[in-house]
Amino acid sequence: MSHLRSDKNQLLARTRRIAGQLAAIERAIEGDAECAAILHQVAGVRGAVAGLMDELVADHLKSHVVAPGLSDAERAEGGNELLAAIRRYGK
């Protein structure tokens, strides 16, 4: 993922925030927090992960599918990788 180097710090910050959100959910469950509060926290994590996925998909698309200078084979491989990731994410 060498194309992510320019955004690496931003991506790491996002993943750390998600990890913090997950830790908060764990603490809420351990502390017998209200169900509704935990559901809202889980929804927040889902949204954060979806946002991260969107950013990674866009980066992959720009670098491995539509970037100038790629051969047809490279474009096909990049597209297939992207399709596989999207299908797995959708399960």
Question: What can you tell me about this protein's structure?
Answer:
With 91 residues, this protein is mainly alpha-helical. The chain has one domain (2-89): Metal-sensitive repressor, helix protomer (Methane Monooxygenase Hydroxylase, Chain G, domain 1), CATH 1.20.58. It contains three helices and no strands. α2 (35-64) packs antiparallel against α3. The model has no long low-confidence stretch (mean pLDDT 93).
What is shown here, in short?
About 80% of the residues lie in helices and about 0% in strands.
- Total individual domains: 1
CATH architecture: Up-down Bundle
Range of strand content: under 5%
Mean pLDDT: 93
What is the helical fraction, as a range of percent?
A: over 70%
User: What is the N-to-C order of secondary-structure elements (H for helix, E for strand)?
Assistant: HHH
Q: Strand pairing plus helix content: what structural class? A: mainly alpha
Span from first to last CA? 23 Å
Low-confidence stretches: none
What name is given to the CATH topology?
Answer: Methane Monooxygenase Hydroxylase, Chain G, domain 1
**What general outline do the C-alpha atoms trace?**
elongated
